Amino acid sequence: MRRDIFQAIADPTRRAIIALIAVQAMTPNAIAEHFDTTRQAVSKHLKILTECELVTQNHQGREIYYFLEIDKMKEIDHWLEQFRKIWESRFEQLDTLLATLKSHQQ
Questions:
Q1: What is the pLDDT of residue 21?
Q2: Which residue blocks in the chain are alpha helix, DSSP H?
Q3: CA 92 to CA 97: how far, in whole Å?
Q4: Please, are residues 54 and 45 in contact by the beta-carbon 8 Å criterion?
Q5: What is the pLDDT of residues 75-105, one digit of tens each?
Q6: What pLDDT shows up at residue 65?
Q7: Within 13 Å of residue 14, how many CA atoms lie on the same side as its CB?
Q8: Residue 29 in contact with residue 64, Cβ under 8 Å?
Q9: If you ran DSSP here, which 8-state letter would residue 31 be given?
Q10: How far is residue 39 from each of residues 28, 29, 30, 36, 42, measured CA to CA in Å?
């Protein structure tokens, strides 16, 4: 089942997992050590992240390492960009308004 990438980042634990493996690839056991939860719960989160194609698995010997898929993260960034532009425009308008109010007070 293919999931939407926004389902992956909706959960704080999955966001934390993404932050961990953004630094370096990790095994499920290494990831689980960072959480106060079971290894099975971490595996469920990894399954969702894999289904969303935000992480990939790489078998190295007996171990499975999870890597972050940067290109999928770019999809999130691209979606957020439209809101960044709106926020920046509003902040610029606010700066202009504040400058105008300040000049009228003097």
A1: 96
A2: 5-9, 12-23, 28-32, 39-51, 70-105
A3: 9
A4: no
A5: 889 989 989 989 999 999 999 999 998 888 8
A6: 97
A7: 20
A8: no
A9: H
A10: 7, 7, 10, 10, 5
pLDDT at 7: 85
Q: Residue 56 burial by CB count (10 A; 0-12/13-18/19+): exposed, middle or buried?
A: middle
Sorting pLDDT into bands at 50, 70 and 90, what band is 25? Answer: very high
Q: Buried b vs exposed e over 67-100: b needs ≥16 C-beta within 10 Å? A: ebbeebeeeeeeeeeeeeeeeeeeeeeeeeeeee
User: In this structure, are residues 55 and 15 in contact, taking their beta carbons and an 8 Å threshold?
Assistant: no
Per-residue confidence (pLDDT) for residue 59, from 0 to 100: 94
Distance, in Å, from the CA atom of 91 to the CA atom of 89, rounded to the nearest integer, reads 5
| Distance from C-alpha of 23 to C-alpha of 61, rounded to nearest angstrom | 22
